[in-house]
Amino acid sequence: MTTQVLAGTGSRAPHAPTVRLLRAELHWIFHRPRTLVVLGLLAVLPVIVGVALTLADSPGPPGDGPGGEGGGSLLASAAGNALVLPVGTLAMTLALLLPLAAAMAGADALAGESAHGTLRGWLLAPVSRGKLLLVKAFGVATVAATAAFTMALTGMLTGLVINGGGTLFTLSGTTLSFPAAIGKVAVAAAWVSLQLWAVGAVALAISAWTEHPMLVVASVLAGIVLFSVLGLLDALSWLHPVLLNDSWQIALADVLRDPMPLDTLGEGALRAACYLAIGLSVAYARLTTKDG
Amino acid sequence: MRTVSVDGGIADHPLSPPTGPLAARTRGLRKTYGPTVAVDHVDLDVPEGAVLGMLGPNGSGKTTTIRMLLGLVRPTAGEATLLGHAMPDEAGHALPDVGALVEGPGFHPFLSGRDNLLRLAAAEPRLGGGDIPGAVDDALERVGLTAAARRRYRGYSLGMKQRLGLAAALLVPRRMVVLDEPTNGLDPAGTREIRSIIAELHASGVTVLVSSHLLAEVEATCTHVAVLHAGTVVAQGELAELLETGNPGLVVSTPDTTAAMEALRGGRIPSRLVPEGVRADLTAATAPEVVACLVRAGVPVHEARRARTGLEDLFARLTQGETNGEDRPERDGLSDVVETDGEDT
């Protein structure tokens, strides 16, 4: 008994347009209550910080900014400064909250879908596994960038409303024009997005290995905390260049200087790109070989 | 492998000549998870246009076989072909024409049934962008979910979830539909609807592969059947063939089996002792003749009924093996059961 070859196997397989898949993915992500709650809370955070700093009413004079040792100290100079508030809250939340959001998106993308049995639906459509990872990575990247830029936007607006447009001081003591300030905040948000993509890629890699989204979030957070601790130990300074979050706070403080020093920012971007490449490669290797 | 021969099947069966093209085929399929052998030596033939019921107790390898056939799982050894394409490597060519409901329905709880289907439809290669809403609404109507289409999946009953899974398999006109335990969680009315949907698909020439652990369900819907046990196919062929395997018999329960045996021997009706009483062979005599013969000899008859056919007998033994745990019959012995109509029941 022989089977009939009913279609040319050499021809290109029919497939759904990628744009349609990306749109469906975004529809799914942005209709999920938890995505909206997380983004909403992150958007409100700069407002809360701005109001709290104003109520504390301790405006430090511009120009005495700290060396950027941490988001907290950066925020100390955010009172009465419309430029520092958005970047300062980004730095503060990049320590834990923003990576948490990226990890959550990465966890839901593959592990969460496996747990619901919904990944199977697309695999059977079929969507090739490489394409699936592309769509998922795009979704996680969108969530991360949306979180960063939303915070930057509400932070900027809060700063302008509370302190007025004349308070766009850099840490170097110069005063920026409004467009230049927007540019700096955008650079900070974009750089933060890149760091979050690195976190998201690692989350996707773990996500491809498990059906438990909680495990992905826990692993990523444990990694962030561990890296932070290791980064504090001078005896391990040889290890510091490979720690993703090693210079996050310094780099964001650098954005607020005039002129902007690029070495720490560039090094951080390069490091994030490496994590991104490794994370996506591991996710691809796993996704293309695992049972669906 | 020993399977029931299907040559010379029922002559007037138009859709599944044994030598016709196959919609799906596996040879020597094997899947192991670590030391556990999930399926082994599975040689399955699904003729085009057939409704093939995959029958087997839980854990017999039905779902694993289906998952390999659909390219979700890469076999450890052996080959699987779906609509002429080697799986899983050519899944992109075969799957657009295959609808499947595997391992229960999988949907997002926070989306409505309709939104869930829209998400799946976005990935269907055979659907143009403009056709998606129409295809989704048609599929919902076909499974009777139109009224609940805009409710969140979270609030669906088990039966509604199952129907939505079926709707996903029917989004596009398919050449083959694979349904893994489709009546799980359905009430009798829902079960009948599934049967009528399968019958509709069959009438329009679609090949259907449906797995079940219920013999009655397979009997009601299928043209062909494959019986799996302990990870291998122990029998396959046309349903009618398998049901009629072996000699017809009449089991008579009586307190006086010795007298019954003597009476039947006197009437030249071949018979033997079985646990329930006496089993008379119906090749030489009809059932009324057997009963008349016994009554004439003064043998008290409590009950007389047709002996189980090969498939029923085989399946009863398989499910018994399941409940008895360790007490699983030998595989080859089981194949013999089909061929010889359970000599030792």
From TrEMBL, chain A:
GO-annotated cellular components: plasma membrane
Signal sequence extent: none
Pfam family of the protein (one): ABC2_membrane_2
Transmembrane as UniProt keyword: yes
UniProt GO MF annotations: ABC-type transporter activity
Transmembrane segments: 36-56, 83-111, 132-162, 182-208, 215-239, 268-287
Transmembrane keyword on record: yes
UniProt keyword list: Membrane, Transmembrane, Transmembrane helix
Domain of life, source organism: Bacteria
Name under which the protein is recorded: ABC-2 type transport system permease protein
Organism: Prauserella shujinwangii
TrEMBL record, chain B:
GO molecular-function term, one example from the UniProt record: ATP binding
Keyword Nucleotide-binding attributed: yes
Domain named ABC transporter: residues: 24-255
Species lineage: Bacteria, Bacillati, Actinomycetota, Actinomycetes, Pseudonocardiales
PANTHER family according to UniProt: ABC TRANSPORTER, ATP-BINDING PROTEIN (PTHR43335)
The protein's name: ABC-2 type transport system ATP-binding protein
Keywords: ATP-binding, Nucleotide-binding, Transport
Biased composition (Basic and acidic residues): 325-334
UniProt xrefs under Pfam families: ABC_tran (PF00005)
Keyword match Endoplasmic reticulum: no
Organism: Prauserella shujinwangii
Family: Belongs to the ABC transporter superfamily.
Region (Disordered): 1-22, 319-345
InterPro entries: AAA+_ATPase, ABC_transporter-like_ATP-bd, ABC_transporter-like_CS, P-loop_NTPase
